[in-house]
Design goal:
alpha/beta, 2 domains, 291 residues, 9-stranded mixed beta sheet, two-stranded antiparallel sheet, globular
Length: 291
């Protein structure tokens, strides 16, 4: 069985929820404390054993490529000023082997994944979405890869959400469960309110066998007039088993404003440099005292 060494990170979305900030800046480059959101995703992939990453970009996303490239002028300046700790932080993103391809038309997530098919070839691969940051002892993607290695089957990461929010997600209809792993009858993209078969929502982490491209090749239009990845997963599930795994860890939704703010606060409270002052500030705000 081939091991999972390649990953796709779709990053071609317009980021309309964060306008006007994303008018000129890719939403994936919005910072959480001192790192852009996409760097958290790349770091998870690398920590999970991924060796080659392809980022699917769109128009106006050049800043992503620049971020993961070397900046010799900046690095030289930091060396001369002996700011070696900061230098290491600046150099870290460029130490990963990253490739790029452009999604020329915004046809949906399924189409974005399909754009990377030649890079993947006939190998199993991972997909990580940039709207979800997961904090866990074992990297979220690593958990899914371990399930793939046990089953030799595609695996999607899921977590439970309130039933009233299921219409916002791809949802799985489980059949049997073994520990945290589910066999799945159906994968449903954003079911209408009151029709969801469960509250197990797909959370932006996937490991696929290459056969998923057989169905993405069909370019079938689904919900929202787009080519949906969830539809291709369902078709793959009818050919070979696709499992759902309820991964361990705290998932942050950085694709919407409140989730982005919550993520920033939580990760800032992990930052030794600013956590004490931030905690004091939050306590003062909570007590109603003017700061």
């Amino acid at each position: 069985m081939k091991t999972v060494k390649k990953a796709i990170i779709p990053a071609a979305g317009l980021g309309t929820r964060f306008l006007p900030a994303t008018k000129a800046m890719p939403k994936e480059m919005l910072p959480i404390v001192d790192k852009p959101t996409i760097q958290y995703i790349v770091e998870e992939a690398v920590a999970s054993g991924i060796e080659d990453i392809i980022i699917v970009t769109g128009k106006g996303k050049r800043a992503i490529e620049d971020h993961f490239d070397n900046n010799f002028e900046l690095e030289d300046n930091l060396v001369k000023k002996e700011k070696f700790t900061l230098l290491e932080k600046v150099k870290q993103p460029s130490q990963v082997d990253i490739h790029y391809i452009r999604q020329k038309e915004p046809k949906g997530l399924g189409h974005a994944v399909w754009c990377a098919r030649k890079f993947i070839g006939n190998e199993p691969f991972a997909v990580l979405l940039g709207d979800d940051i997961v904090r866990s002892a074992t990297p979220c993607l690593r958990q899914l890869i371990e399930q793939f290695e046990e089953t030799s089957s595609s695996v999607v990461g899921v977590q439970q959400v309130p039933m009233e929010e299921t219409h916002r997600y791809g949802i799985v209809e489980p059949s049997t469960v073994e520990g945290r792993r589910y066999q799945v009858n159906n994968f449903v993209e954003k079911p209408a309110q009151g029709t969801s078969p469960s509250n197990l929502a797909i959370m932006g982490r996937y490991v696929f066998t290459p056969e998923i491209f057989d169905f993405l090749d069909r370019q079938e239009i689904g919900a929202g007039g787009e080519i949906q990845l969830t539809d291709a997963i369902q078709m793959l599930n009818e050919l070979q088993k696709v499992y759902a795994y309820d991964f361990e860890g705290k998932r942050y939704d950085v694709g919407e404003k409140l989730g982005f703010v919550k993520t920033t606060i939580d990760l800032a409270l992990e930052n030794e440099e600013i956590k004490d002052e931030l905690l004091a500030y939050l306590r003062e705000k909570a007590s109603g005292v003017e700061v």
